[in-house]
Amino acid sequence: MRIRIKFRKYGVMKFIGHLDMMRYFQKCIRRAGIDIAYSEGFSPHQIMSFAAPLGVGATSDGEYLDIEVLSTKSSGQSLQALNETMAEGVEVVSYRRLKGSDKKAMSIVAAADYELYVKEGYEVPDVDYEAAVKEFYEKPDEILITKQTKNGEKAMDLKKLIYEFKVLRKEGKPVFYLKVCTGSTDNVKPQIVLEAFFRFLGAEYNPPAIQIHRKDVYGMEQGKIVSLGEMGEDIG
Amino acid sequence: MRKLALSDEILLNIEKPARYIGGEVNSVMKDKENVDIRFVMCFPDVYEIGMSHLGIQILYDMFNKRNDVYCERVYSPWPDMHRILKQREIPLFALETQDEIRKFDFLGITIQYEMCYTNILQILDLSQIPLFAKERGKDMPFVIGGGPCTYNPEPLADFFDLFYIGEGETSYDALFEIYKVWKASGAPRREFLRQAANVPGIYVPSLYDVSYKEDGTIASFVPAEDGIPSRIEKQVAVELTDATYPTKPVVPFIKAAQDRVVLEIQRGCIRGCRFCQAGMIYRPTREKDVNTLKRQAYELLKNTGYEEISLNSLSSSDYSKLKELVDYLIEECSERHVNISLPSLRIDEFSLDVMGKVQDIKKSSLTFAPEAGSQRLRDVINKGLTKEVILEGAGKAFEGGWQKVKLYFMLGLPTETAADQEAIAELANEIAVRYYEIPKEKRHGKCQITISTSFFVPKPFTPFQWAPMHQKEYYLESAKTVNEAVKNQLNRKSIRYNWHEADVTVLEGVLARGDRKLGAVVLHAYEKGCLFDAWSDFYDHAKWMESFRQAGVDPDFYTLRERGFDEVFPWDFIDAGVTKAFLKKEYQNAQKGAVSPNCRVKCNGCGAGKYQGGVCVENPD
């Protein structure tokens, strides 16, 4: 039986990297007494996979891992057992059984959306961001940037990889909403979009000033982009 | 939500920010306004090392069980963080509340090895606490040291307000009660120290005067005022089974050196190896009740979620109910997919059987610690391990499928000759010969024998506390002798040899048996930038040597002399249980090559019997 767990990551947990989060969840699963399945072989490991790594420094409302279990309690009981052993900064918000046809989260990840906002104590230039987004994103046919890869620099067209880009306002400060292509082939980190945008504005992008907050991760299901959290069903 | 002491900008630009944020599973959050005493416990090395230390977990848990105490943690900031804290003048903070350490009531520092002494000064310096105890004002924390190095605390005497000699389980409650009364009274700092000096096990260095003879040895060591005890008795948790034990240890987010739960099964060792300080200062050997251990093992795994449990003791094979405990763990752990690690096991049929069940034989290696190459020298050090036992154990292991063997030795032991050094390589060769006796079709390729040597450092409260060390050149020469001898062995292709640096050994030797004059050296070294001296990448020998010159202290005085039986040692004011008369007799036995039986075979009258506990009162049947 396969289970999809959705969790939030906030507060000081944003400093914990992806590999350490995996180790963290392995221990949580044991503490909570989840009847997880183990792989065969001399050094068995828990059957667990994370959907999409989140960078150090980012917070999230929608992180996912899939696990395989031998038996399970209800969604409610399992959530309670898991949340009783969480550190402050991680909260498990859903625990759903996947259908046989549902694919592994990491294999279908297609998009993620983010809010990037200005941290307390930092400022960004006071410009008409709404108009700027139109000029930067909506009007052009392509947005070319150069991306550093292992094999040197590579030209990349961001236009077709950004699914949505808009500016919201919170307490007068801009909040940049981005929905971007995510996954193993064309993975777009939100900060490279913002960096290109600020360059377009002739302003400097100051990474420590911006908090990256992931809202959710989406998978491709029958040609449609669907939240990973909508797949599967609650266990009564 | 907790607010951190450091900005995102700092934390996202240093290595492993998780070292500084706290908030780990099982870390204790209390209302700091509702306690009387705020204690911060420090392990003066990097987080991943410090978090692996059992002693701090015990005290952290024990202190936090008191409603009136809030105990937090701090570790040495890594050099990248050190630079930032210095440059920006950010005071060092505790992990839990992220509050400045200088605002606490106590800063407790566990002192596990000599090479962390400059890291202790770093903690004080970054905390913006005066380095010298005498310069600390009324609002500054009391700095208290504990751990094995406090069996000779003298090189650090200037920097600490107090030392706790012995096992922490016994006297902290009394110390806290005195502190609360003192704090409410508003009396001067020295008044608390005077009262603390009368708590069993507490040593207040500023209340003692030391004078030296012309030759540099100690003339007298006496209390500076009336009402201060002249001897400090080490503390022993006599009933270890009933002692507090943390079943909810803090679980780090990042991988610690010891990435597993640790279950202490006994304290002390019956063997009496003459080089081993732990084997002397943790006397008497005390076992914990096996049913208590089973329950604690279960709770530890449940509360932490670790996938490995390790049994902790100086010599696990000597634990009388080991088979019962291990059988229970194997059953309990296989259900939960938890690994068992069993360090410090003697290699015999039982341990091979157990290891075969809990480890991947192909990957794991067997470890022997003969410590000396020849039987003669093993008798000198009272290491009751014979070549026959080693070869038999290795033979059984090879037949059971093992191919890798690790051998640990020390060079520079008292009475050592070149023949003893060469015997190291010969022993490794004989083990290899034993492997190749197995028919070709039954073995899997070559065996791998790894020899590691370290250089012997005499420690206080051991029979070798009188013994001289050697010049650096001697150590390098002896490593070369072993290396040449390895190359001359028939099975040299199956043997690898690693040895340690000699510079650090000499410094460790100076600090281990040093006196108060070394405080200046440690200070100069820190001021010159020495830090993380236990890490070979960071150790800077030239700076240390320059610090000795600057302080006018000759390191050879501490290392090259054979001390006389009438010499007053800096640590003589400590009553560690084992008597000087016993240690002297053992030193003389060593020189004769006479072995002493272990505590279960026969009592050697070491002096620890006065605690009326453990092996000293075991029923012989």
Give your account of this protein's structure.
The complex is a heterodimer of chains A (236) and B (621). Chain A has 5 helices and 12 strands. Chain A has 236 residues and is of the alpha+beta class. In chain A, the strands form 2 sheets. In chain A, strands 1, 2, 3, 4, 5, 8, 9, 10, 11 and 12 form a 10-stranded mixed sheet that branches. In chain A, a hairpin with a 2-residue loop joins strand 10 (210-221) and strand 11 (224-227). In chain A, helix 1 crosses helix 2 (75-84). By secondary structure, chain B is of the alpha/beta class. Chain B has 3 domains: 8-233, Cobalamin-binding domain (Rossmann fold), CATH 3.40.50.280; 260-359 and 577-621, Transcription Regulator spoIIAA (2-Layer Sandwich), CATH 3.30.750.210; 361-500, 2-Layer Sandwich (Transcription Regulator spoIIAA). In chain B, 33% of the residues lie in helices and 14% in strands. The model of chain B has no long low-confidence stretch (mean pLDDT 95).
List keywords for this structure.
heterodimer; A: 236 residues; Alpha-Beta Plaits; 2 domains; ten-stranded mixed beta sheet; two-stranded antiparallel sheet; B: 621 residues; Rossmann fold; Transcription Regulator spoIIAA; four-stranded parallel beta sheet; 20 helices; globular
List the helices and strands and how they pair.
The complex is a heterodimer of chains A (236) and B (621).
Chain A: E1 2-9, H1 18-32, E2 48-50, E3 59-68, H2 75-84, E4 90-97, H3 105-108, E5 109-118, H4 129-138, E6 144-149, E7 152-157, E8 162-170, E9 173-181, H5 190-201, E10 210-221, E11 224-227, E12 233-234
Helix pairs in contact in A: 1-2
Chain B: H1 8-11, E1 37-43, H2 47-50, H3 54-64, E2 69-75, H4 79-88, E3 106-110, H5 117-126, E4 142-146, E5 162-164, H6 172-185, H7 189-196, E6 202-203, E7 208-212, E8 218-223, E9 232-233, E10 261-264, E11 266-267, H8 278-281, E12 286-287, H9 290-304, E13 308-312, H10 322-336, E14 339-341, H11 349-358, E15 365-371, H12 375-380, H13 387-399, E16 404-411, H14 418-436, E17 448-455, H15 472-487, E18 495-499, H16 503-512, H17 518-527, H18 541-551, H19 555-559, E19 574-575, H20 580-592
Parallel strand pairs in B: 1-2, 1-3, 3-4, 4-5, 9-19, 10-13, 13-14, 15-16, 16-17, 17-18
Antiparallel strand pairs in B: 5-6, 7-8, 11-12
Helix pairs in contact in B: 5-17, 6-7, 9-10, 13-14, 14-15, 17-18
